[in-house]
User: What shape does this take?
Amino acid sequence: MTHSHTFDWPDDLLVLVDQMENEADERSLTREERAVLDVYETVPILESDDCLHEFWQSGTDQQRIIKSFDLIGATVLVDCFNASSWCRTLGEDRNDYSEAEADHLAGIEEELAEGMEDLVDLLMEFIEDEGLNDG
Assistant: This one.
């Protein structure tokens, strides 16, 4: 399954992410800053062919990432993560899924793709509300 939606991050977001990544070595990021980075860093996984399967098989801190999406208000995506959490108990190869599992996951990923359409706006609003771009 290919996702036609490729993120076109606003320049000011890219600058902010770059700045936070550089500062992360020198100080602890706030929970809000961490959320922005989590979302930004997770999008390429969600845009990959294996999408949610890859998310659950990746060694990332999935609970923290889900909380980050929740924090910025991306509730549709949070629902998709929660609805697909059973993927973490399956094998590493998505081709090993039963037809029912594959169909179920494909349905969740369609919802996810729709939810991601609002992600840039949600993230930019969150950054604005939290005053993260004032630095």
About this structure: The chain has a mean pLDDT of 92. Helices lie at 11-23, 31-47, 51-57, 62-71, 75-83, 99-116, 119-130. The chain has one domain: 30-126.
